[in-house]
User: What shape does this take?
Amino acid sequence: MALRRLPSDKPQTSVRDSIDRRTALGHLSAMAAAAAWPANLSDAARVSSEPQPTSPSGGSRLRKIATEEAFSIPEVATAVRDLVRQGGRNLDLKLLKLIYDAPPAAAGTQQVLKGSRDALAGTLLPRLLDFDTIRLAEMDASGVDMHVLSLTMPGVQMFAPDMAVEFARLSNDRLRDAVRRHPARFTGLASFAPQDARAATNEMERAINSLKLNGFLVNSHTNNAYLDETRFWPILEAAEALGAPLYIHPRAPSDGMAAPFSDYRMEGSIWGYGIEAGTHAVRLMLSGVLDRFPRLRIVLGHMGEAVPFWLWRLDYMAAPGSRAALKNQLKPSEYFRRNFAITTSGLEDPGVLRLCIDKAGIDNVMWAIDYPYQPTAPAVAFLESAQLSDSEREMVAHRNAERIFRIADA
Amino acid sequence: MALRRLPSDKPQTSVRDSIDRRTALGHLSAMAAAAAWPANLSDAARVSSEPQPTSPSGGSRLRKIATEEAFSIPEVATAVRDLVRQGGRNLDLKLLKLIYDAPPAAAGTQQVLKGSRDALAGTLLPRLLDFDTIRLAEMDASGVDMHVLSLTMPGVQMFAPDMAVEFARLSNDRLRDAVRRHPARFTGLASFAPQDARAATNEMERAINSLKLNGFLVNSHTNNAYLDETRFWPILEAAEALGAPLYIHPRAPSDGMAAPFSDYRMEGSIWGYGIEAGTHAVRLMLSGVLDRFPRLRIVLGHMGEAVPFWLWRLDYMAAPGSRAALKNQLKPSEYFRRNFAITTSGLEDPGVLRLCIDKAGIDNVMWAIDYPYQPTAPAVAFLESAQLSDSEREMVAHRNAERIFRIADA
Assistant: This one.
């Protein structure tokens, strides 16, 4: 296969200079075993094939499909750790270091879980690597029926192209295995390597037609490039042709916008993630690619990354033809209704939910937890307590996800 | 006075190598005379000392104080034009070229006003330079009582420090003159030169105590630096000590975050302005400067630059002490309620207004038009038709502005 090398984030790890998998797996297994789980979690850690019954507001049990739920696999985790150890200026390395290369002392006790999100990061890896035990127990404890799983940030996008292609395949195979083991509990969004658009489209076709996965997830920019660039159009074309949605998950701002986010940890979930992913979405709207691929479905997390807030101004300032540089044939709000869906990950605010339902349409809003980065129980409480009609709540909790991600009814 | 030179946007214009004011004034006067005003505007162009009566929803006339209304003066306009002609990579130059150095053919006809915001930009300068004729006529035509005036983007912040200091003084003097000529119609926010913090604080003191202006306006970053940097603390200290609010108005993203905004005119009001100003606000929250200056009042336009949308996530991810790099002692939402006020400029969306009232508090939301960049009549219609109680509408229309900017009751 011909590999094109793209201008890239430094550092990159190539397959040749990288990992001893046996060593890596041993290391990570030890880390997972050493992590002290909170007592309440250990109590709940029994594997189940069915969620626990709960009593949501409607009386009858509400099916809950969480749509932005992260996993990793040991090989990718080790390669990410190696990237961290190489160092570099990419702002994602700050969080990745805490997750994948934290000093053992930081690993989870109940106290640090409560006290500091920096310390919490040091406890995430075992949860990311687990499909069958911790994850199902946490789902059961809160009555969560299903995780729509996706390879966690930054996916394969910081690796050299050949390694990225290999890891996307491996990750998708493992995801398929997890879904086969627990078909009532897991579905999945496939990874692909935008670094190699041709390999990416091959893998996308395989992921849907052979592995029977439910869509795709990309972690915003790849080596500082956005999907409106023509070299990525085959990826957008494939997603549209396969009828499978493309979730644009955040990562830290690309190097060309990094400077103001480099203080106060603003690069990540505090602020930079939303700016990065929202900017990516607006580029797609204004570049005209959504006119070229009118049936492409983009999913945004975090209540649409503030795009719903800005739609009036986007429509006013970026009406078709209003500026020479604009390529859009429709108003941004028209694309938003036609080409986008959003999830509630990490923004459990009932007022924002209502605004987003008004802007995106009740058909296009899906519930998410952002496991393991956000706790499950409050996300469930948010879903069950938000001011929604029974019909609206069912759409947000599961019906929209069933339609958009082609998930079988319960 | 000792002038410190800061790392700067290129290009800069210094006083010594710059303008022949006589030539400049002649040029701009000719431009203004040549601009063909729309017929309905010419019809309305009579000077008045009182707004026209209107019939707002409440029955009795609603006082309307617009709080983000732009002006320029010929000397500054000429210097900005010279900056444009020097060229450079700063993204603000794209819009500034259209406004200050547009080919004459672009100047205003009714047709281009309707057709293209690029062409509209070529018609703005006469409106920016006028206090006494066009502006009052447009206010009267829609029943607007008062403009809270401010030197338009980028203020004096792209000039060399000595020139910036001089132009801030000159601009503030002219603003004071306009307010004296029309005390019932104009109040003003003073300019200052962050490039020279000591001169800035002197000018801030003069603007409030001698010129009797009502606050300050800064156009976000100055030479890519943000106000949380220690060298700017004297400016924040002065604003707090003077009890005068500091409006942080957008400009295009700073050079260190410019790259993804350099396509599709995303640097400006379409998307980049909100990112730039919102990021500035979040830096102030997370840097701890609002603990150092707890009575500082910051005003944000554009419904708070999406900060209200993100507050739940900001609180969750940036709780005090939750990450080693965070310096904030309060939750972001606590600063938002205590230290911020917002205006409705350029985002006339009733749903967003309701969200913002919930987040900022009804005491802290003020109406604005963003004259002459946005049309007056729709902004008035938005104010008069939004779903607000009579009491809420009065607070947004004038009472909050009267309190925050110390404007006398009508």
